[in-house]
Design a protein that fits this description.
This protein has helices spanning about 20-30, 35-40, 110-120, 145-150, 230-235, 290-300, and strands at about 5-10, 45-50, 50, 65-70, 80-85, 90-95, 125, 135-140, 160-165, 175, 180-185, 190-195, 205-210, 215-220, 270-275, 285. It is an alpha+beta fold.
Length: about 300
């Protein structure tokens, strides 16, 4: 699918004051070389405070930088989702693996948000799942519902339970994982969230559902909401997700050219979501059926 292009907008912060625009662009968007950025500048794709830029300008605090990316062909992604619950205030869907929740990383139109809003224009996601993660995504359809859910999302009032297929055989049945999560260097995109002793406090509870000769299926409950928390936490105790292209045994990026955060190939499913309805107060218990591939691999022997 070819999209309509996108205007990426940033405000120059004090940290970058005095840099040339070309060097700033190359450090901000590391997917392109300085030479590639100079070509984009020559094409008139970049403005600084509304004026077409050349690249030799010195940026100053507070300026508005806009990259008007021309339309591009987006990667394919699944175009379906299952409705699990809907009323005038809420919409819950079962997202397939491979479909981004929100625009970003090369996807603008092929996203769950765009697909949902074609049917329900006033629905906005309360949270997001990684592109490779399947399962429950909850949308709010009214400002009142959104405000209450946002306030409660990372508290015990909302139970989020995942199913994960991990490498290696767990020695214990239950793990309380407290590995802090923060930014660490990444060779392709500058930095990425990972296990970091000076990172933010994080807590997960992982219970073993089943074991095969070389994998463990966990049920994981989240007590905090850090980026990629389950992938990082299980990897940090020696159980990276099967097929994870980014995180290795320590919860750090793999040493040999790790993948990108949005890459798929792993098995992680948001299976249960339990909370009180933000408007009516009734108990809502949602369950999304696990993908067949996850069920099959969880039960394989050998």
């Amino acid at each position: 699918m070819q999209n309509r292009g996108y205007a990426y907008t940033t405000i120059i912060s004090r940290k970058y004051h005095g840099q040339t625009l070309l060097s700033h662009l190359a450090s901000l968007y590391q997917h392109s070389t300085p030479q590639a950025w100079q070509q984009k500048l020559n094409n008139g794709e970049v403005t600084l405070n509304g004026v077409t830029a050349t690249g030799c300008e010195s940026v100053t605090v507070g300026q508005t930088l806009v990259w008007n990316r021309p339309p591009w062909i987006e990667p394919d992604s699944p175009q379906h989702f299952e409705v699990l619950f809907e009323d005038p205030h809420l919409l819950a869907v079962n997202k397939p693996s491979g479909l981004p929740t929100l625009p970003g990383g090369g996807f603008m139109e092929n996203t769950l948000l765009r697909l949902v809003q074609k049917q329900t224009p006033n629905a906005n996601p309360v949270h997001r799942l990684g592109r490779g993660t399947s399962g429950i995504v909850l949308f709010a359809k009214t400002p009142q519902a959104a405000a209450t859910l946002f306030a409660n999302w990372n508290t015990p009032k909302i139970q989020k339970i995942y199913r994960a297929l991990a490498q290696n055989i767990a020695q214990h049945d239950v793990y309380e994982i407290l590995t802090p999560i923060g930014l660490v260097p990444h060779p392709r995109i500058g930095s990425v969230w990972a296990a970091n002793p000076s990172g933010k406090p994080s807590k997960s509870l992982a219970k073993v559902i089943s074991r095969t000769t070389n994998t463990t299926t966990f049920q994981v409950s989240l007590n905090s909401g850090r980026p990629h928390q389950i992938r990082i936490h299980l990897a940090s105790i020696g159980h990276p997700l099967v097929g994870d292209p980014l995180y290795g045994l320590t919860g750090q990026p793999l040493e040999n050219l790790p993948g990108l955060p949005g890459d798929g190939g792993y098995f992680l499913h948001a299976q249960f979501l339990k909370f009180h309805h933000p408007i009516t107060g009734e108990q809502i218990n949602l369950e999304a059926t696990s993908p067949n591939a996850l069920e099959a691999m969880s039960s394989q022997e050998g």
